[in-house]
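Lab notebook, design round three. We kept the backbone fixed and only want residue identities now. Task for the bench partner: fill in a sequence for the structure below.
Input structure tokens:
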């Protein structure tokens, strides 16, 4: 889209990002509170693993079938309705927790599942509307700024959540999700979201999912990139999911130090997102992606060789700041390329398939992470993740269709804009 067609696009997109920040941070505070409650009440790794899987599986399993609805339904409605549903379940959970001494475990799991399903609808909707809200030449920067918003939530939410968890009863703290939903919806009402013409054909879930898969597969460089990204997530996730165990078990640290690692990593992500948001107009975005995979591989590998002492922990903190800074370059730049590669009316179905392929690797990695760490040691998982990251980066470098994809994409778009 040309800048001249969107005279007030910047004010509009920043109002949208503000709504995402305010609704996102309240949702994450509640998410942390629920996990901490489960930890305190059960002390069970199995319960926590199940809670984590419930938060990840809907994205992996439902994304291909959500995409057709994203392409056809009103985008603002797709952002608002899931927030309303999540808020209703938060109210139910709060009421039950007030009437009883403890929350029923099954109701907490249902609440976590509903929240995850709501996010499964919202994430591809946000990804698909960004190209319609900003000029093409600003898309990478705006994606970087969206990443900054998400990173800021990840920095603030743990600290704010810990403070509120200590002074506010959990049954009332959960209602913060309702407050966030009200604020987010109120701001969204003032956001202008361009709508492409609604597709008149009825939804056929399998046919539409196949349509998204075919679109992705028929874009050779992007298809290979997606598969490599899934492999990258599979190798990376086991170690990433065990940061608390690495801190408290291997380095013999405290809960506070485990929280510090999460914050430091998120601060690194915020710094990386800031760099993308300011300097995001690269002629070939594959180069910073390859550099980020190299940086993540090296920092993870180095973490696995650190001594299990407090001096080793200090080095671990520094390495995680660097790894966090590198992380947004892979995910953010990949998303910008996908958004520019397909028509807006096809984007929801393509993103649904792509999100499913990359997301399914996360639960697979989590299933094997615990038993593998018990056998070989958690620090060895960081070395395995490092080798996998470097291998994925080398594979991308050796595949011309992947290595040159973005340069060709931007050259094609420049030619089309010049012709028009």
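Proposed sequence:
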């Amino acid at each position: 889209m040309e800048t001249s067609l969107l005279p007030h696009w910047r004010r509009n997109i920043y109002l949208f990002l503000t709504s995402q920040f305010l609704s996102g941070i309240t949702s994450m505070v509640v998410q942390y509170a629920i996990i901490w409650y489960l930890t305190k009440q059960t002390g069970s790794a199995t319960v926590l693993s199940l809670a984590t899987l419930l938060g990840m599986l809907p994205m992996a399993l439902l994304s291909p079938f959500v995409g057709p609805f994203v392409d056809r339904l009103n985008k603002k409605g797709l952002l608002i309705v899931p927030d309303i549903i999540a808020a209703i379940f938060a109210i139910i959970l709060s009421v039950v927790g007030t009437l009883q001494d403890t929350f029923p475990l099954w109701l907490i799991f249902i609440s976590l599942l509903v929240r995850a399903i709501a996010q499964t609808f919202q994430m591809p909707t946000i990804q698909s509307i960004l190209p319609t809200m900003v000029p093409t030449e600003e898309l990478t920067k705006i994606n970087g700024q969206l990443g900054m918003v998400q990173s800021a939530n990840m920095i603030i939410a743990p600290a704010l959540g810990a403070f509120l968890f200590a002074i506010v009863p959990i049954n009332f703290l959960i209602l913060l999700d309702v407050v966030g939903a009200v604020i987010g919806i109120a701001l969204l009402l003032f956001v202008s979201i361009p709508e492409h013409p609604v597709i008149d054909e009825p939804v056929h879930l399998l046919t539409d999912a196949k349509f998204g898969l075919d679109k992705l597969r028929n874009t050779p460089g992007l298809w290979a990139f997606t598969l490599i990204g899934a492999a990258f997530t599979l190798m990376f996730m086991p170690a990433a999911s065990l940061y608390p165990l690495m801190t408290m078990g291997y380095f013999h640290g405290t809960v506070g130090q485990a929280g510090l690692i999460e914050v430091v990593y998120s601060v690194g992500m915020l710094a990386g997102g800031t760099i993308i948001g300011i300097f995001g107009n690269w002629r070939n975005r594959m180069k910073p992606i390859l550099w980020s995979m190299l940086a993540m591989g090296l920092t993870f590998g180095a973490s696995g060789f650190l001594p299990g002492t407090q001096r080793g922990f200090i080095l671990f903190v520094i390495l995680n700041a660097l790894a966090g800074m590198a992380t947004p370059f892979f995910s953010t730049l990949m998303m910008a390329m996908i958004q520019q590669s397909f028509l807006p009316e096809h984007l929801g179905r393509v993103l649904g398939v792509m999100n499913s392929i990359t997301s399914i690797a996360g639960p697979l990695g989590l299933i094997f992470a615990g038993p593998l760490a018990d056998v070989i040691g958690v620090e060895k998982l960081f070395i395995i993740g490092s080798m996998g990251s470097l291998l994925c980066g080398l594979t991308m470098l050796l595949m011309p269709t992947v290595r040159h994809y973005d340069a060709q994409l931007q050259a094609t778009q420049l030619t089309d804009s010049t012709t028009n």
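Keep this in mind before ordering anything: The chain is about 85% helix and 0% strand.
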